[in-house]
């Protein structure tokens, strides 16, 4: 017999709402949920201020690099890198 552990509703709801940063439209503000990348890239992004829960505003999207505002700084991220950054709508009061 196979037994499964129940999953929490919050965790599964959060996972369903996440999407890659590359799909966010200009002017939208989102919250970083997690980074699905290797240790080296995840560490570099954390050094740049991209940590779980941080608020990110997309400033410019034009098929190339994505320009974002995070922690008072502006960062340009390539599309491949933005695909590995999963974001969710901001929680109430976090904008």
Structure description:
The protein is α+β, with helices and mostly antiparallel strands and 95 residues long. The chain has one domain: SH3 type barrels. The chain has three helices and six strands; from the N terminus they run H-E-E-H-E-E-E-H-E. Strands 1-6-2-3-4-5 form a six-stranded antiparallel beta sheet.
> Which CATH class applies here?
Mainly Beta
CATH topology: SH3 type barrels
| Unreliably modeled segments | 1-10
Q: What is the N-to-C order of secondary-structure elements (H for helix, E for strand)?
A: HEEHEEEHE
Judging by the overall fold, what is the CATH architecture? Roll
Strand content of the residues, in percent? 25-35%
Report the strand count. 6
The average pLDDT is: 85
The main sheet comes to: 6 strands, antiparallel
Strand numbers in spatial order across the main sheet: 1-6-2-3-4-5
Q: What Rg do the Cα atoms give?
A: 15 Å
Q: Helix/strand/pairing class, anyone?
A: alpha+beta
